[in-house]
Amino acid sequence: MNDTDEDAADALFHALADRTRRDIVRRVLAGEHSVSALAENYDMSFAAVQKHVAVLERAGLLTKRRQGREQLASGDVAAVRAVAGMLAELEQIWRGRIGRIDDLIAINPHPEV
């Protein structure tokens, strides 16, 4: 990964580190929602929801388009797949480590203490 990729990964994980933002991502992946309709689901101000949506947009997890007076948000499946790919890469590293530990235990199952 180069620095640009690392910055993008930081933005994705930062955006997904918040419960409200994860919920917004779930909703916009299921279908396009206006920011106003999204705001009705949360016990916070419209401006606060707009800020969450902006963080998700900067991370590339959703896109917005204007329709009349409304801003409609849609989830970006490719960005979610990128996050899944990064997590799968980390899982592979850990599975490799566990495999090497299993190999060491198999060679010497009863090490002297």
Characterise the protein shown here:
The protein has one domain: Winged helix-like DNA-binding domain superfamily/Winged helix DNA-binding domain (Arc Repressor Mutant, subunit A), CATH 1.10.10. 67% of the residues lie in helices and 12% in strands. The chain has helices at 3-16, 19-30, 35-39, 46-59, 77-107; strands at residues 33-34, 62-67, 70-75. Strands 1-3-2 form a three-stranded antiparallel β-sheet. Helix 1 runs antiparallel to helix 4 and helix 2 packs across helix 4. The mean pLDDT is 93.
Strands, helices and their partners?
Elements (H helix, E strand, L loop, with lengths): L2 H14 L2 H12 L2 E2 H5 L6 H14 L2 E6 L2 E6 L1 H31 L6
Antiparallel strand pairs: 1-3, 2-3
Summarize it.
With about 110 residues, the chain is α+β, with helices and mostly antiparallel strands.
Q: How many beta-strand runs?
A: 3
Question: Order of SSEs, N→C?
Answer: HHEHHEEH
Radius of gyration over all CA atoms, rounded:
20 Å
CATH superfamily: Winged helix-like DNA-binding domain superfamily/Winged helix DNA-binding domain
User: What profile does the largest beta sheet have?
Assistant: 3 strands, antiparallel
Q: What percentage of amino acids are in beta strands?
A: 5-15%
CATH architecture: Orthogonal Bundle
CATH fold name: Arc Repressor Mutant, subunit A
Strand order of the largest sheet: 1-3-2
The figure for the number of domains is 1
What is the distance, rounded to the nearest whole angstrom, between the alpha carbons of the first and last residues? 41 Å
Mean pLDDT: 93
CATH class: Mainly Alpha
Helicity, in percent?
Answer: 55-70%
* Total of DSSP H or I helical runs spanning 4+ residues: 5
